[in-house]
């Protein structure tokens, strides 16, 4: 990290052109209004000849020179046909984007380090549009998602980006571009979506062992379930050295399918015991890594159907389980200061 | 079961392979017409590379390493040098372009490579026009351009597997939309002369020759291509009077007849020409020729105005051009059928040149001429009487006119005239003309051979008469003090048909032509004349379109003494005007109100008529609520319509622009509501 920070700090000195360009781009994008529905009009579509377009221009000039020098009227026809088609293709390229409506669906929360999928709906009232590419502004040119929009129809495109840090993130700036039909011009538009996405801390992998749980006399629900079924319901992640008979095979199979680990019957902790995932349990780690570990524990505990509470400095979520509870815990971790 | 039917395999071909095969097919189509101009190794190499590349595409095999095309290119360069001794010029250039194109297909790695192939393809299309600009070539190349554009469009349809038909129609649409710009530029782009270099001789095909030995006109006789077209706007002229003067061959070295000089510029001095009687105005469209001369009707004293080329009269009444032409020339001139050239004057030098006979040439003919001269009735005959007597001799002494006389002078080329004049007596125009001149010179009469075109076909609908290379002819001129140079066509004496019906030397039709002719004797000539009139229009309107026509059009627009600079100005003005129209439209489009706001204003207007306040900030949903409140159940349809608008504007399937049909329905509904609720 320090190396990267240093590089970032000294970049203006090392690469003045790149840095200036980045600053200009940032300033430019600041001026764009944030919106979740963008209609592409003449005001926000840019168009410039592509490299192939410049090559094409050079070809047309060579053809024109040859036609003049050899006095070829058919050469003039060819040259002007190509010039006319090239000029028309500029308008066609621009028209491919003009009047297109872009809509972003509210994104689902994600974990840091794993991709967030942006679901974009492209709507067209005019004729069919071909070869529209979408990517995040910072993504490479190869990362374009290509899509066609039928006449008067809609199409869905998915663009993903990988957030590196937890917290509430603004959606990245999107670029929509096209070179259809001849590739001589590139028309593009830059769109700053208004939506935000919540990014949870990146779960520690592999997860550390869960902290020990405490008896909770108040938790009657679990206790009753245990006494009724006469069976211990507590489940925890498989640990090295667990005897095979402790593995809950039925559940393990399901978890393995969804990418989880083996689970073992937790004999040491009774189900009526409740689990506190505490900031203090991760003593000795930097804060972000503590949050990562806690996020991993929340996942493991939820997978094990164990009731768990979360305790952070300034935040305490009482023990419970279920999807809502997990989301609350992860949100707490994501937004913790 | 590795075997699958070809159709199944074609259908299951991956997109990349299909696109590559399509591009290869387009390349093949573009290169194919060049086969006649390419050395055999180039044809073999190109074919091999294209087939190999197609195989790689079929089997989805990796492309060869980069050194291979580079090595092949180096080899091809060496072979080109070996074949042509140079890398520059038309044929070597085309050869290299074809090789480059084929080898580049082995390098289609990035999109940039594909663009190189496309642009090389357009360049190759142009090279075809260096050889021919006929309708057929134009049509074939139009297909090529379409194919290349289709491949280009295909490369920019990245989603799914678009059909070739779809890509083809998109390319066609682009080209069709570009066509008006093409026409505008074609019509208005000023035709300026070559920027550098001069067209080389020998490119435009055979025409008249600058020299003659017995046999060369015989080769021309089977050349059915059109040399020029002539039209007489004022009055018709019979075919036997149509002598278009080409090179005058005076110098004779015993085998070869050549003009006195072929250089340009020529000596300023021209022989005195006196014209009598009325002139005949005529128009000529001259095809590109391999000689820098104008075959004008005898006798045209004044230079026609030509575009960018200067024409000068030779001393022998021929017309020379300052350079070769690549495009058709179209001009108007006036000829005077009655003229006297060099009347009363002939310099000693000219007399010597036109009497010159090399020693040892045609000794028997010269002896025969001595005997001829000694005939009692001809002892004191004038040159004209001598010529008439020679014509009588030709008519009565079993000379025959034939296109296949066989070879003369095989044993001794200097005896060729003897063999013809005294022994076999079979030949065509140049045999007769050459022998006539030799005999006249032997008789002490200055004489020379004139070559050119004689006769023309019957006029077509627009009065144009076709003159073909097969109309090439050779005749003679002799000089008499009081008449000047007199035309004498000895061929007319033996084959008056050849002159009077101005039927050209047509070869027997081939097998297909013969079959057609048996089917319907008129069909072949009809088809032919149809095609030729089409070809003529093509020449007149497309190929012959030159600065002359451009400036004529400017003059018709009222510009006095227009120049190409005026044309350039007009083009720039037109283009700027069009660009301004575009800018104005863009500005109007920008200033246009947001269509949703317009719709909201229209809706508010309707609701205000119904007595609702309808404030601008209220969305349709609120307006619907107010409608329901005020009108109750009768207002329900209107409220529902407003809810539809809400969905159209803000819902999941929101429209980019408001629907006009919806507004029309709303208006109807609002009117209905107004009628039903208004107090009676």
What gap, in angstroms, lies between the N and C termini of chain A?
21 Å
Low-confidence stretches of chain A: 217-232
Largest binding interface between chains: A-B, 57 and 63 residues
* Radius of gyration over C-alpha positions of chain A, nearest whole angstrom: 29 Å
What would you call the structural class of chain B?
alpha+beta
Shape of chain A: elongated
Total DSSP E strands of chain A: 18
Q: What's the rounded overall pLDDT mean of chain A?
A: 81
Quickly give the structural class of chain A. Answer: alpha+beta
* Sequence of strands across the biggest β-sheet of chain A: 2-11-10-6-7
Q: How many DSSP helices of chain B?
A: 24
In percent terms, what proportion of residues of chain B is strand?
A: 5-15%
- Identify the overall geometry of chain B: elongated
The number of distinct helices of chain A, counting runs of at least 4 residues, comes to 8
CATH homologous superfamily identity of the largest domain in chain A: Immunoglobulins
Described by its quaternary structure, the protein is heterodimer
Transmembrane segments (chain A): 52-68, 74-93
Keywords (chain A): Membrane, Transmembrane, Transmembrane helix
Biased composition (Pro residues) (chain A): 203-214
Region (Disordered) (chain A): 203-229
Task: Walk me through this protein's architecture.
The complex is a heterodimer of chains A (337) and B (680). Chain A has 337 residues and is of the alpha+beta class. Chain A has helices spanning 2-14, 16-31, 51-70, 73-97, 220-229, 249-257, 287-303, 323-335, and strands spanning 37-39, 46-49, 101-104, 110-111, 116-123, 129-136, 145-149, 154-161, 167-170, 174-178, 185-191, 196-200, 214-215, 235-237, 263-265, 273-278, 308-312, 315-320. Chain A folds into 3 domains: 28-197, Immunoglobulin-like, CATH 2.60.40.10; 227-265, no CATH class; 272-335, no CATH class. Chain A contains 8 helices and 18 strands. In chain A, a hairpin with a 2-residue loop joins strand 17 and strand 18. Chain A is elongated and about 95 Å long. The two termini of chain A are 21 Å apart. In chain B, the strands form 6 sheets. Chain B has a 5-stranded antiparallel sheet with strand order 8-2-15-17-18. In chain B, a hairpin with a 4-residue loop joins strand 3 and strand 4. In chain B, helix 13 (416-424) crosses helix 14. Chain B is elongated and about 135 Å long. Chain B starts with 5 loop residues before the first helix and ends with a helix. Residues 1-10, 198-207, 215-222 and 500-509 of chain B have low confidence and may be disordered. Chains A and B meet through helix 3, helix 4, strand 6 and strand 7 of A and helix 6, helix 7, helix 8 and helix 20 of B.
